[in-house]
Structure formats: C-alpha cells, structure tokens
Amino acid sequence: MAQALLFGGVASAALLLGAVLGALWTPPEHLTAAALAFAGGALTSALSFELFAEADKIGGVWYAAIGMLVGAAVFIAVDARLLSGMRGSGAGLALLAAATLDGISENLALGVSLVEGASVALLAAISAANLPEALGSAVRMRESGRSIRFVLATWSATAVLLAASVVAGRLLLGGASGGMLALLLGFAGGAILAALAVTVFPEAFEHGGPYVAFATVAGFLAAYVLSET
What ranges in 79-211 are assigned the alpha helix state H? Predict the structure, then answer.
C-alpha cells in the first residue's frame, strides 16, 4: 500500500508541476514538442519491455495480445466520440480529457505492476509524459480565458484521481489470476500505444518538426536503461 501511494504521488507530482508551469508560463513550442517526443519514446520502451513483456510472462502472449487490441480499440472509440469534438476552441480541455483517459490506464497498470515488483522505468516514463501533457493543456486553457485558479484546481483534482488509480490497481486488481493480469496489462499497453499514435507523436511532430525524432530515441533509450538496471 505504501509503495502504491509513493508511486502514485510521484507520477501525480509531475502532473501538478506541469500544470503550475503552464498556468504561469508559455514555453517555446519546440521545447514542449521535444518533451512530448521524449515522453513518447519512454512510454513506447516501457510498454514494450515492462507492460507487454510482463503480461506475456504472467499469462501468455495471447492474453496479452487480446488485452492490447481491446485497449487500443477502447481508446480509439472514446477519442472519436468524446475528444474529437472538443479539439479546436476547447483544445486545453481536450488535452486534459486525453491525459486523464490514458492516465487512468497507465496508473492502473502501474499499480498492477507493483504485484510483481516495482517498475521504475514505467514510473519514470509516466512521469515524463505527465509533465508536458499537463503543461500544454494548462497553457491552452489559460489562453482560452480560464483563470489560473481554475487551471490549478482542475489539474489538482486530476492528479488525485490518477494517484488513486495506482492504489486501485494495486489493491483491487493485484489478486487477479495470471490470465486476467495479462489482459489488464495488455489493455493498458494498448490504450497507451493508441494514445501515443493519436495524440502524443502527432502533436510533437506538428510543433517540433522531424528533429523531435532524436528526443523520441533519447526517451526510448532512457527508459530501456532504467528497465535493465
């Protein structure tokens, strides 16, 4: 329980830091793009070597693969129905909703992963993604006329929800069978991968150009090194 609270707190602290920075400062677009690309690379590495590999080890590749396909399908369906209509004038709120949607999957998976042993690489990757996602959303919310108090209150509530997701994943799902755990971890990996394809990488490329690929590679390598230590 203490470890789940610690991991949830660390991941949510990155979210709050990004929201505070975005509420007070507008960073250069290429800097945010590079941070998003780095986070995308780190998450790609973590879900490959931590989530999916662990799911395969626990319950077998078929359970992991089915979970991943379902997770990707659910994210795409929710994105198409709920988030697409929010983009544009409500870009900040759309980014908030997207961060919450894939954040719940990430943090539930982080909680489940604690059953088999703490995944520092996954925690680092989630934290690396939380900061630029919250920063970018906070900037857009502020630019659309939202008050700093509203921005900080909204992201604080989101941080509490996502921290609670880590604890829920550890307590409620930790006792599941091997096959069920593989499905859950695969589901989270599929949702994260779909989110990277739909939101993170396109956003990074749009504002940073092709050179953000170097940041993606750096993020991948950083997460891989952590997973091997």
Answer: 91-113, 120-143, 148-172, 178-195, 201-208
Q: What is the pLDDT of residues 173-208, one digit of tens each?
A: 777 788 998 998 899 899 889 989 988 899 899 999
Q: Are 169 and 138 in contact (CB under 8 A)?
A: no
Q: What is the pTM of this model?
A: 0.90
Residues 6+ apart with CB under 8 A from 196: 40, 43, 44
Contact 55, 63 (CB under 8 A): yes
Q: What angle do CA 134, 27, 86 make, to 5 degrees?
A: 45
Would residue 27 be called left, alpha or beta, if left means φ above 0 and alpha means ψ between -120 and 50 degrees? Answer: beta
Q: Residue 199 and residue 177: Cα distance in Å, rounded?
A: 33
- Asked whether the predicted pLDDT for residue 93 surpasses 90, the reply is no
Q: Decide if 226 contacts 119 (C-beta within 8 A).
A: no
User: Comparing C-alpha atoms, which of 58, 23, 229, 40 is closest to residue 136?
Assistant: 23
* Neighbouring C-beta atoms of residue 133, cutoff 10 Å: 30
178 with 116: CB under 8 angstroms? no
Give the model confidence (pLDDT) of 136-164 as tens digits.
Answer: 889 988 888 889 999 999 999 999 999 99
What are the CA-CA distances from residue 52 to residues 18, 190, 216 (Å)? 28, 9, 19
